[in-house]
């Protein structure tokens, strides 16, 4: 009797096939299927008239060995197959599932980027979002493992109104949701207020969480009208307030709109790179400045 096996990882089963035993005059009565796990004792799993058999719900990363014993119809003779062994290696799911940034793209779009090693065999990630500062999460989509980094765009947001938290859960190559969960990350929300009479604009923003390298600093950008944005200040991590003196713009040829955004900068993380996170763009139009309109 020549025994062969096929391991179906996603079904958690081992399929056995063998040839019929033909040397007995009385013929074969039954085939007895024995197996052992990791060198343990032989276990009788089943008795069959067929020449194929399937062992279900096998444990991952274990060594299964099988022997088929045939018994003659007159019960006077037995014959054993070869010993067939198979290791139930399960598709690798890496412990490195790093949500490397959450960054605002526009007032109605946030991008999530995820880093995982190239050897990770996952199919992708379920993306979860929280609108209550991480107290509860809801699945909003799926990001396929189709590039580095893995990218997901959330197009159902109001980035000028609130902070959004995200995390990712790995889905393995068998489409099973795993317990491999990323860190969380949140969007940065910027609010601006014009102080009437003192030519200053107050900026307040939320912190970014949670980078592996932590926040290094925040860059503050100002844009006047249709002009390109300009870096006006850099403040240290833990600073969430800035006062912009706009007295030099008492007379302006721009459209009177002062727009700002914050760029959070990560320290170099353990994976060897640094990320950024951009806030929403927040604009104010002080009513105490004089604007010269172009013809």
Per-chain topology:
Blueprint: E1 3-8, E2 13-18, E3 28-37, E4 43-48, E5 52-55, E6 63-72, E7 78-80, E8 84-87, E9 98-106, E10 109-115, E11 124-130, E12 138-144, E13 150-154, E14 165-171, E15 177-181, E16 185-186, E17 190-195, E18 200-205, E19 215-224, E20 230-236, E21 241-245, E22 251-252, E23 258-266, E24 276-278, E25 282-284, E26 290-291
Parallel strand pairs: 22-26
Antiparallel strand pairs: 1-2, 2-5, 3-4, 3-6, 6-7, 6-8, 9-10, 10-13, 11-12, 11-14, 14-15, 14-16, 17-18, 18-21, 19-20, 19-23, 23-24, 23-25
What characterizes the major β-sheet? 5 strands, antiparallel
Number of helices: 0
Query: What is the rounded Rg?
Result: 32 Å
Report low-confidence residues grouped into runs of 5 or more. Answer: none
Estimate the helix proportion, in percent: under 10%
Beta-strand content: over 45%
Q: Kindly, what is the distance between the CA atoms of the first and last residues, rounded to a whole number of angstroms? A: 96 Å
């Amino acid at each position: 009797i020549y025994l062969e096996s096929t391991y179906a990882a996603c079904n958690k089963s081992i399929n056995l096939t063998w040839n019929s035993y033909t040397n007995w005059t009385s013929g074969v009565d039954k085939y007895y299927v024995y197996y052992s796990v990791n060198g343990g004792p032989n276990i009788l799993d089943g008795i069959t008239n067929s020449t194929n058999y399937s062992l279900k719900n096998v444990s991952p990363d274990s060594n299964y060995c099988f022997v088929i014993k045939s018994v003659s119809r007159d019960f006077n003779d037995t014959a054993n197959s070869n010993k067939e062994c198979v290791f139930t290696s399960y598709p690798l799911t890496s412990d490195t599932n790093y949500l490397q940034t959450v960054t605002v793209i526009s007032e109605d779009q946030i991008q999530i980027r995820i880093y995982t090693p190239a050897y990770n065999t996952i199919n992708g990630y379920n993306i979860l979002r929280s609108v209550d500062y991480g107290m509860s999460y809801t699945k909003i989509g799926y990001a396929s493992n189709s590039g580095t980094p893995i990218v997901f765009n959330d197009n159902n947001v109001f980035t000028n109104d609130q902070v959004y938290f995200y995390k990712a859960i790995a889905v393995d190559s068998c489409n099973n949701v795993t317990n491999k969960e990323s860190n969380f990350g949140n969007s940065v929300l910027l609010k601006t207020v014009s102080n009437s009479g003192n030519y200053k604009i107050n900026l307040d923003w939320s912190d970014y969480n949670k980078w592996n390298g932590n926040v290094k600093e925040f860059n503050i950008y100002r844009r006047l009208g249709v002009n390109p944005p300009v870096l006006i200040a850099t403040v240290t991590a833990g600073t969430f307030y800035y006062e912009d003196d706009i007295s030099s713009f008492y007379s302006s040829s721009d459209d009177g709109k002062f727009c700002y955004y914050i760029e959070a900068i990560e320290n170099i993380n353990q994976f060897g790179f640094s990320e950024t996170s951009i806030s929403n763009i927040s604009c104010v139009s002080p009513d105490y400045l004089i604007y010269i309109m172009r013809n």
